[in-house]
Write a structure and sequence with these properties.
The chain has 465 residues and is mostly helical. The chain has 15 helices and 3 strands. Helix 2 (58-88) packs parallel to helix 6 (186-206) and helix 12 (345-364) packs antiparallel against helix 13. The termini are far apart.
């Protein structure tokens, strides 16, 4: 038996056969992309823009976006509606309202810092869907109890319940953003998530906080406010039920670190000066959000009441001003996202911090939150806020080491939480005992520190080149 001649003849016969590809009987979805090496799996696109991971359906990603929209809406809502509750429900004296608002934010962030890594670990064990559903139910429970608070202590307790769910929801948004889209579409998916954030802020400020105005035929602040909180709570419950059928099961692509490992590896990564800049950006961006949705609304509400407006009208006016800042932020997100890929990232974050600091310093010099200068300041703030959010996230995503990316990203978020703790504690005290615009001055200084560090870093890098 001549093996060599047999092999040659067999190869010759095979060469004569027509080479037609095997046809699969599997149904191909019109938005799907076939995978050659995995014939039993499909890749889908969402709205022909975002390529999803293997076997992730468009309805799964759509459910994720809706859940993210309602999650961010509730975050903005609870901050912006708290001044209404503190003033009208609990009757806190005006000279103590700043401290109460600060304490609520302080305990909320402490809770999030403590439990956020726990929720990440649990989701790796029992799945994202179950944890996200539970998170929304906890947030709904906190909002349901919120208007029933009769003391500051009970209000803090209900805020902690909400924050436990908020920590889980935040962790799940980050995890699902890594799980659902394909690697090459994660940036587009992040842009859609940012769009949901802007829409959620507008929904909270221009729809849900106006419910008391629409219920003006009910001459009872308690009923008006309770319906406002319970409406958002009911939507969170409905979203939780929707996720049971719409989200699907996802596979974990990363393991969550404990809080000590996050801090250790996050500090070690500070050898890279660009990562330090992104940490400063995270602190500045989170500070922007708490000041715009809490202290600004409280200041405008108190000023309106002192000028003769009814409490309800003063609250509506305050929400409108904060909503203008969020509207400008949403509109500017598209050009900012485009510029972030075309400009040096160090320079881009430095310029964003400069814009934000200008807006804060404009508001900090106002004696009262009225007049055209206020609107100029909040519009500049909206652009700076969105610039800081996008630029810091882009910078940390590009500079974080691959082997410790999870911990570095976690420490990046912790920097924002630490700054909120500082602003709510110190800013709330100074609001009552010094100036109501003190929180704006504090965040303006934090942004200015980012400007100085970023400018020095950019000049040094340019000098080396």
């Amino acid at each position: 038996f001549n093996l060599t001649n047999h092999t040659k003849n067999h190869q010759k016969n095979m060469d004569c056969c027509p080479k037609t590809p095997l046809k699969s009987n599997m149904y191909q979805h019109p938005d799907s992309v076939p995978i050659n090496d995995l014939p039993n799996e499909q890749v889908f696109r969402f709205m022909k823009i975002v390529v999803l991971d293997r076997n992730v359906l468009p309805r799964n990603f759509a459910s994720f976006l809706w859940a993210s929209l309602m999650t961010i809406t509730s975050f903005v809502f609870v901050n912006s509606a708290t001044p209404f509750l503190v003033d009208h429900f609990l009757g806190v004296a005006e000279e103590n309202q700043g401290k109460v608002i600060g304490d609520l934010g302080f305990y909320s962030e402490i809770t999030i810092i403590v439990v956020v890594s726990f929720w990440g670990i649990v989701s790796d064990k029992i799945g994202r869907k179950l944890v996200y559903c539970l998170a929304l139910l906890l947030m709904a429970s906190g909002l349901t109890l919120y208007p029933l608070a009769t003391t500051i202590t009970s209000l803090i307790l209900y805020r902690i319940i909400f924050s436990i769910g908020a920590a889980a929801a935040t962790s799940m948004m980050i995890a699902l953003l890594a799980d659902l889209p394909a690697e090459n579409s994660r940036g587009k998916a992040g842009s859609m998530l940012g769009l949901m954030g802007g829409l959620g802020a507008l929904l909270a400020l221009f729809v849900f906080t106006r419910i008391p105005q629409w219920l003006s035929f009910i001459d009872d602040f308690f009923i008006q406010g309770s319906i406002m909180f319970w409406t958002v709570s009911l939507l969170l419950v409905g979203t939780s039920i929707m996720l049971v059928f719409g989200l699907g099961d996802t596979n974990s692509k990363h393991e969550h670190s404990n809080i000590l490992l996050i801090v250790k590896e996050g500090i070690q990564a500070m050898k890279n000066p660009k990562i330090v800049l992104s940490y400063l950006g995270s602190a500045s961006a989170r500070g922007d959000s708490i000041v715009l949705t809490s202290f600004l609304i409280l200041w405008i509400q108190q000023t309106g009441i002192s000028n003769g407006l009814s409490p309800k009208d003063a609250y509506i006016n305050a929400g409108m001003v904060s909503g203008i800042a969020q509207t400008v932020a949403l509109i500017s997100s598209v050009p900012i996202g485009i510029l972030s890929d075309k400009i040096d990232r160090t320079l881009f974050q430095t310029v964003s911090a400069l814009v934000a600091s200008i807006g804060y310093f404009i508001i900090s010099i106002l004696s009262t939150p009225t007049g055209p200068l206020l609107y100029i300041g909040v519009c500049i703030l909206g652009v700076g806020e969105m610039g800081m959010i996008i630029s810091s996230q882009v910078l940390i995503a590009s500079e974080a080491p691959v082997d410790t990316r999870g911990s570095v990203s976690g420490f990046f978020s912790l920097c924002g939480s630490f700054n909120i703790l500082f602003i709510t504690a110190v800013g709330g005290y100074l609001y009552d005992h010094w100036l109501p615009n003190a929180p704006f001055l504090i965040v303006g200084v934090v942004n200015l520190i980012t400007v100085v560090y970023g400018s020095v870093l950019y000049c040094c890098l340019r000098g080396k080149q």
